[in-house]
Amino acid sequence: ETELNNGKFTLQAGHKGYYDSFAYYIEGSLVNNTNKKYSYVQTEFNVYDSNGIQLGSAIANINNLEAKGTWKFKAMEFGSDTENVASYKVVGVTAF
């Protein structure tokens, strides 16, 4: 699952996932659907190899996401097996 819509936030992460010889990156956008400004927001993903074994997690965070604002994020995972990432899924969004 690469998208999430929990009412408060709409996360679309299917835009791009790639390895650049240093880390694996997941790019996408997160929309704040509320009239509330959040002082901290974090996206969380699990990353897997081609056998479905979890290799780690990727996160991105931002401060002061405006009400009705859109954030273009770039989550990063840089574990020892990063070059073997074959897929990822959304774990969730943390905000306060």
Number of strands: 7
Spatial ordering of strands, largest sheet: 1-2-3-6
Shape: elongated
Gyration radius, in Å: 13 Å
Structure description:
- The radius of gyration is 13 Å and the shape is elongated.
- It has a four-stranded antiparallel β-sheet with strand order 1-2-3-6, with no helix packed on it. Strands 5-4-7 form a three-stranded antiparallel β-sheet, with no helix packed on it.
- By secondary structure, it is mainly β.
- 25% of the residues are buried.
- Strand 4 (38-48) and strand 5 form a beta hairpin.
- Helix content is 0%, strand content 66%.
Chart the SSEs and their pairings.
Blueprint: E1 3-5, E2 9-19, E3 24-32, E4 38-48, E5 54-65, E6 70-77, E7 87-95
Antiparallel strand pairs: 1-2, 2-3, 3-6, 4-5, 4-7
Features:
96 residues; mainly beta; four-stranded antiparallel sheet; 0% helix; elongated
Short description:
This protein is mostly beta strands and 96 residues long. 0% of the residues lie in helices and 66% in strands.
